[in-house]
């Protein structure tokens, strides 16, 4: 009888999924993010320390000795964590796009988030190299790339915390738009912190103000608003 009542309640409508079903792919991606974090913490102490300092003591990052610089393995691990963050962001975007309980769009969102993250990574390195050539501010540009890499790790951790919180609250498919709004809020907060750090870098290096504003608007603010128009 209970089954018949459920059927009549949802006649013509898909049955609502449990939060675990909705976030299954997101949780797998988050697990990879946790494993990458453990790898960074255990194997690459310098990169881990620089990442923590970028969140709380950014001037300590800039004042470090040469032997405190990150090694190639730590840098690659951080880049990998950044790609995981983009994939997790894409999967959350896929959640709010799905008009039915089918999870195919969530997988597509994760894939295209990964592709977009890799594209952004390549383009940023190219444009920063061009910027360094034009402005002759090689150290400032290198600092900007380093900050971007470290703060993407913080973004990944924030997204993982969001997924865990949504699971704990029991939010599922019916809350998909609210979930995406909270995801966007985290993204904008993270962008604001990153732009603040970039501006601090420009002031610390006493870069020409016009070049500094052009740098932030062209390589940071402009692409962010374009993405928001496409994904928001």
Characterization of this structure:
The protein has helices at residues 2-9, 19-22, 24-43, 45-56, 58-62, 72-97, 104-135, 138-169, 176-205, 209-231. It is mainly alpha-helical. α3 packs antiparallel against α6 and α7 (104-135) runs antiparallel to α8. It is globular, with a radius of gyration of 20 Å. It starts with a helix and ends with a helix.
Shape summary: globular
> Termini, distance in Å?
43 Å
Portion of residues within helices: over 70%
Order of helices and strands: HHHHHHHHHH
- Tally of individual helices: 10
Largest sheet: none
Mean pLDDT: 77
- The stretches of 5 or more residues where confidence is low (pLDDT under 50) are 1-10
Proportion of strand residues: under 5%
Integer-rounded radius of gyration: 20 Å
In terms of structural class, how would the helical and strand content be classed?
mainly alpha
Count of distinct strands:
0
Brief account:
The chain has 232 residues and is mainly α.
List keywords for this structure.
232 residues, disordered N terminus, 0% strand, globular, 10 helices, mainly alpha
